[in-house]
Amino acid sequence: MIQRQEYLNQLISGREKQIIKVVTGVRRCGKSTLFTLYIDYLKSTGVSEEQIVSINLEDVEHEELLNYKALYDYVKERLCKDKNTYVFIDEVQNCKSFEKAVNSLFIKPNVDVYITGSNAYMLSGELATLLSGRYVTIDMLPLSFKEYCESTSSAGKTIRENFNDYLRFGSFPYVAIIERSDKVVIPYLDGIYSTILLKDVAKREGITDVSLLENIIKFVAASVGSPISTKKISDTINSSGRKISVNTVEHYLRALTDSYIFYKVERYDIKGKQHLKTLGKYYLVDSGIRNLLLSTSSSDLGHMIENVVYLELLRRGSKVNIGKLYEKEVDFVASDMNGRTYYQVAATVLDESTLNRELEPLEKIADNYPKILLTLDDIGPGRNFAGIRHLNLLDWLQKGEP
């Protein structure tokens, strides 16, 4: 198993605190494995087997626990007296009214509750109401490039070869350890995509026209890194002979972001210091899924690496926006408790006109927050343009630094 140390540390820091730990993220991003790693950690600290109750509600073995009362009774019977019991419930949203069981277990003494879910229902205002605000979320993504390079399948390959694999086959943990070939990876990714499409989106949202939903998915996937509006999507689909309203497009897009297959990023007016609701961008949770859906080419490399940078900024705990400055755009404005950092992302800036185009928006920003240009160019330790740091993307991904 690939060690997901940053996520593991978050679970460790919440151990035995009076709060429900909720791990969310797209299917197959490693939530169940994270529980396994954490259980191993608990055992290494002296926790006994009888103190651990672990249930996966996608396993047919636990089918009878899809009723909240049965789930509660099952766990209650296994609680230890006078010492902590650690309760792990995987894919808890499969149990109707699960919150009744979870809340009842939570209020019992010496019970430490951990749950996972593959739908943003787990993050919604509904959840805050259902769990009475007594929870903390750990938002999990597929592998970072650094984690990907730590897998056994990466051994013996150059960092650029591994990055090419990362872009082509994606970052789901299982992909990192199996044979990296189309014949092996494509069926696996297709299974993940189909499950998300049918189970997490269509079934949950009551969408019957799955082919229309797929049209929207492919349109948005092809538009990664480009400003997009629901009206544009609606007009494009209507022009092809299918009929769909702007409201329906909005409903479908919300369902897709709820299932963590897409992330919506709003624009931020840097000068006016306000968020803008129009012409946001969407990024996809995994480049392998994008390649499964589309016939991509090397000319799309800029948008693909932009997608990688966006997800990496999320992993590092930033709130991310698209920057707008007059008529110029800054790819990302990443904010955290320490302030903000501005990023431009490009495949290459060896051409002087391209370099000037990428630097110009950053040069116009009047404040003194860090400004970084990320490219695939081999530039050694990096360059500096009047305070703007030019870094190699692969080094930046590997080092985990701002």
Automatic annotation (TrEMBL):
Residues 199-341 form the DUF4143 domain. It comes from the Bacteria. It holds the Pfam family AAA_14. InterPro entries: AAA_14, DUF4143, P-loop_NTPase. Residues 20-149 form the AAA domain. This is Putative ATPase (AAA+ superfamily). The lineage of its organism: Bacteria, Bacillati, Bacillota, Clostridia, Eubacteriales.
